[in-house]
Amino acid sequence: xxxxxxxxxxxxxxxxxxxxxxxxxxxxxxxxxxxxxxxxxxxxxxxxxxxxxxxxxxxxxxxxxxxxxxxxxxxxxxxxxxxxxxxxxxxxxxxxxxxxxxxxxxxxxxxxxxxxxxxxxxxxxxxxxxxxxxxxxxxxxxxxxxxxxxxxxxxxxxxxxxxxxxxxxxxxxxxxxxxxxxxxxxxxxxxxxxxxxxxxxxxxxxxxxxxxxxxxxxxxxxxxxxxxxxxxxxxxxxxxxxxxxxxxxxxxxxxxxxxxxxxxxxxxxxxxxxxxxxxxxxxxxxxxxxxxxxxxxxxxxxxxxxxxxxxxxxxxxxxxxxxxxxxxxxxxxxxxxxxxxxxxxxxxxxxxxxxxxxxxxxxxxxxxxxxxxxxxxxxxxxxxxxxxxxxxxxxxxxxxxxxxxxxxxxxxxxxxxxxxxxxxxxxxxxxxxxxxxxxxxxxxxxxxxxxxxxxxxxxxxxxxxxxxxxx
Length: 471
Known about the structure:
- There is one protein chain.
- The protein is 20% helix and 28% strand.
- The chain is of the alpha/beta class.
């Protein structure tokens, strides 16, 4: 299966213009894609001035430029990766921009299981557990539930070497072999479940509800991605919170890897409402593009809770636009983080396509697009230095042996949040994760971090004037 990639990026669309003659007929054995990659990184890459091969004076002629590009033998990923800074954890390139567009809208080919992987001891063997299941998916129909464990796919043990292939979206149907915890080990149950994938757009508003406890109304939102397609539904959820007069607000971002900055601004504006027109965040480009730095402002939205404190459930997978929300609000209201430290993605990227004109027509000769880091986003006070993550105020890692039911008050992280709020009495923490930590190690997220914003019209050109044949 494929777990949504990407995501959290500050994503801009860059229009790359070519001479009209380039649109007449395909040219054989040229550097069109390589040139697209180098020019894009030379112009927009945040660390451009620290990468020697991206220096403006790197090449003294088209011949030396062509010689440099030719050494990659049309391996576009290799060229792209060779031009990245050692500081870069997040840039990436794709051979099919339609897949990029789907990812930004949280469209994927999936059985509906949203999973996390863990490593078993010091071996290369992995296990998977289900974080949540998408409604109306095959996994939901087959009664797969949060907390289900499995060790193998199609009777093949998951390992560090094969998990990407076994989880690939190209595999249309597969089976999982369920497992269970026995003491300090995970063992098969003997039950196998056949699953079929389909293209699904995930609604990132996974749960929204009002919790009433001790004469207090708490709005709870589990929000798994900043997706503009669902902004109206997000506004409706907050309108309900406003109508019901919630006293406190919890936004659960533990699985939110980011998304569209415009959605983050709307969410921040609805959480508050008293800061309309003030600076929410500010962009910081490379030296060449510093004149394009801009401020993002709180919006004037009819739905506004006017909160002076926000409780956020976070994890190591809370990234990018999620961190923008937290960091941006922190200079105006109290933002209390419960869970784990966040990812530490304080940078974003433009989405660069190879357009051939100002009308948005794409180059018909290839489908490559890239997501290089192009800027930092700071809060209104200029703070953006959280590469190690935003620190949790109250720490509690999610425990796969005791996940609980999302949205219920006894789910460990929500329960902890209610304790921090003083709604529930504090109790001793029992986290089986620490008992088993020597046996199981969490693997990196299967989703990329994304922050996505619209490109200002004045930045919609990458001049590409080089035109020469491969030697």
